[in-house]
Amino acid sequence: EAKKKRNRLVVYTKAMDAALAHRRDIEKALLEALLTREGLSCHYQPMIRSADGKVVGLEALARWRHPTLGVVSPVQFIAVAEETGLIGQLGEWVLRTACARVAKLDDLFVAVNVSAVQLRDDGFADMVMRVLLETRLPPKRLELEITETAIVNADGAAVQLLRRLRRTGVRISLDDFGTGYSSLTLLKDLAVDKVKIDRSFVQNATQAGDSAAIVRAVSNLGAALGLCVVAEGVETEQQRAFLSEAGCDELQGFLFSPAVPEDRIERIIGPYPVPAPVPAYSAG
Ligand code: C2E
Ligand code: MG
Ligand code: MG
Ligand code: MG
């Protein structure tokens, strides 16, 4: 019995060792990738105005393919970057790359994800302004996506920093909305411009359950506060119809396009016309 237990412990430890070693490999490789810029890229996903199907902006999403580790998910490498202090470098690189790319397009805005760790850096707002000047992108065409959880945990300095950026015209968008615990007053105080309803609610909105009610409530709240409401993770026409009807201003998801490499942007900037409503019954 004792021996059995010991064996189990050994197996467990080995699994942990392997996980830890894999993580160290990722850390080392990510640092290399940031130094050489090899394997890192920025992909773009369109954001569609629900009223007419016009593409109004693009979200920049970091991608990383390593020669031996393969494709590493951003969820994984962003976490590693946050823990190792590389997120500042990575975030600045994504921002500069995305602003430079979108500055070449007419009118479209670019949405760039910002980690909570970046908001703790006093130099963040200056860095953003520097990048905008260098890439000649007007501030009003940049949107910074901050997760609801990051905002809830942000300290006074971080909130001040966001206010400062907002005064220059940069827009602030609350990402993954509904998964954190922000209050309605917080939303009003923070002076954000947009809320992005989390994919989990969007995908359940056309199923039985509470999601439809939540989506409607967030839409109404957003409208009342003068915010732009976005739905992420839209995959079906049924969801699109529901979300438009519920009052979401913008839509994003695989129904329109996944994120694509920069050389394919021209192919995904739509338009994505609103389908004609299907008649409920027509006797002819
Ligand atoms: P996010 O900012 O909420 O981005 C949306 C994620 O949902 C993206 O995953 C996107 O590819 C995916 N998505 C979009 N439409 C659909 C859909 O219709 N169905 C489904 N199933 N998924 C959809 P991705 O690219 O894997 O990124 C995951 C997360 O990693 C992002 O979530 C964001 O939090 C983070 N991330 C990505 N790039 C960056 C970055 O440059 N900086 C920071 N700080 N975080 C990043
Ligand atoms: Mg985002
Ligand atoms: Mg999101
Ligand atoms: Mg999300």
UniProtKB/TrEMBL annotation:
Q: Where is the EAL domain?
A: 23-273
Coiled coil region boundaries: none
Name of the protein this chain belongs to:
GGDEF domain-containing protein
Q: Identify the species of origin.
A: Luteibacter rhizovicinus DSM 16549
